[in-house]
Specification:
Length: 429
């Protein structure tokens, strides 16, 4: 069954399973989130069933009695689709569809369909198609329409079907190889772009999906990227200069949002996009503090950052949507609990100004302070200073010599160290 089929579905019933060692509140939040995912696809949730079980059933995940109840509920409410908040195996999908007479999809399939819907650039489309093929590869048996037209139960008929399935699988694998080659080429082009920005300060916005990253990005860079109250509205990394007049130059990037139980195939496929995170000097972890379970979302973000190898990068928490919170003391409590954090509303210009200054102060505290003496005729040296340093003062002591007092990143310092005044002592080394 192709993932794109869900786009035609108008209504669905959500299915949840609670095991003995699991938190009922977390399941409740997951089901609310799953309903929001369906809303993003334009699908109405017309019912919900949760079953407590000692263990999952291999054949259809839930008990046969509950499956029958699902079938009746779907018939009464006209639901075409059952959405299960678990990862289903191909036999489980097939069995549930046969028993309920509904189309069945798991949480991973829903997330993948949203990614497919929101993919706009060549890179995003390529990444999504790789993930889709890798997810569908083990589910091809009995699901492709041309196989349904095969005749008879004789030995010859079964052999032909098996051959056709293997052809389909081989074609899918070949397609994945070609797409990964394309993705590697895109990754190389992005690496070339990143090399050109190597001497610039890079800040990346990360966090749970729909936490307000793109709204912050637009406010801080005067950008016009799509920002809407929907899950996974941003799939590509968008990079803009934080302040054209700032030196050294600071770049801000917006990245794909995270979510609980994000399919591993999507994480793998989007690693080239997430390389913007790995290249960052600072991560601004945006948190929607108006969400009831924002602490769990913070844990998810932390876990995904660890999974992609970004746990070593310095983090500042940006607690967003303060305007939606009733507790007037929450911002202060969070600042104490998370040193270096800031609480804002992305819609308030004064808060965005505070966030901008917050970022500047962070880097200023990590700069090397020094004086540089550069001959006026050394155009490359002077250009290097103006492009990469925060200039505090400049003094032309002689006609042929300029003395700069600067703040400079520790990464850039070695390139300008030959110009350092020997009598000067660095504050940052």
């Amino acid at each position: 069954m192709e993932v794109a089929q869900i786009a035609a579905v108008k209504s669905a019933i959500i299915v949840g399973v609670l095991l003995p060692n699991e938190d009922p509140k977390l399941l409740h939040d997951d089901l609310i989130e799953l309903e929001a995912l369906l809303t993003t696809l334009g699908i109405v949730t017309v019912g919900q069933i949760v079953q407590k079980r000692a263990k999952l059933t291999p054949s259809c995940l839930i008990g046969t009695g509950k499956v029958e109840a699902l079938r009746e509920l779907a018939r009464e409410r006209g639901a075409e689709f059952l959405i299960v908040d678990r990862t289903l195996s191909p036999p489980q999908v097939r069995n549930l569809e046969e028993m309920t007479k509904c189309k069945v999809m798991d949480r991973s399939g829903v997330i993948l369909d949203i990614f497919s819907q929101n993919a706009k650039t060549n890179a995003a489309k390529t990444q999504v198609e790789i993930a889709r093929l890798e997810m569908m590869l083990p589910r091809m048996v009995g699901q492709w329409t041309h196989l349904h037209r095969q005749g008879g139960g004789g030995a010859v008929g079964r052999s032909d079907g098996e051959k056709q399935i293997e052809v389909d699988r081989r074609r899918a694998r070949d397609r994945i190889i070609r797409l990964k080659d394309q993705l590697n080429q895109i990754a190389r082009e992005r690496e070339t772009q990143r090399k050109a920005r190597r001497n610039e300060i890079k800040v990346a916005l990360v966090g749970y999906t729909n936490s307000g990253k793109t709204t912050i990005m637009n406010a801080m860079t005067k950008g016009d990227f799509l920002a809407k109250d929907a899950l996974f509205a941003t799939l590509d990394s968008n990079v803009r200069t934080l302040d054209p007049n700032a030196r050294p130059k600071m770049l801000l990037s917006d990245t794909v949002g995270f979510i609980r139980n994000l399919p591993h195939t999507l994480i793998e496929s989007f690693k080239s996009t997430l390389d913007e995170v790995l290249e960052a000097d600072l991560l601004l972890v945006v948190v929607d503090i108006s969400h009831d379970n924002y602490k769990s979302q913070m844990e998810t973000t932390k876990r995904v950052l660890t999974e992609i190898g970004a746990s070593h990068i310095q983090v500042l928490h940006v607690f967003n949507k303060l305007d939606r919170v009733d507790d007037p003391f929450l911002g202060r409590i969070l600042r104490q609990a998370y040193p270096g954090s800031i609480s804002i509303s992305a819609y308030k210009p004064e808060d965005i100004l505070k966030l901008r200054e917050h970022v500047y102060k962070f880097f200023a505290s990590n700069f090397v302070h020094c004086k540089l003496a550069i001959p006026s005729a050394d155009k490359d040296g002077v250009s290097l200073v103006y492009r990469n340093c925060m200039i505090l003062s400049v003094n032309y002591e002689r006609q042929d010599l300029a003395v700069f007092e600067v703040h400079i990143t520790k990464e850039m310092y070695p390139k300008l160290a030959p110009y350092k005044l020997q009598s000067d002592e660095d504050d940052g080394r």
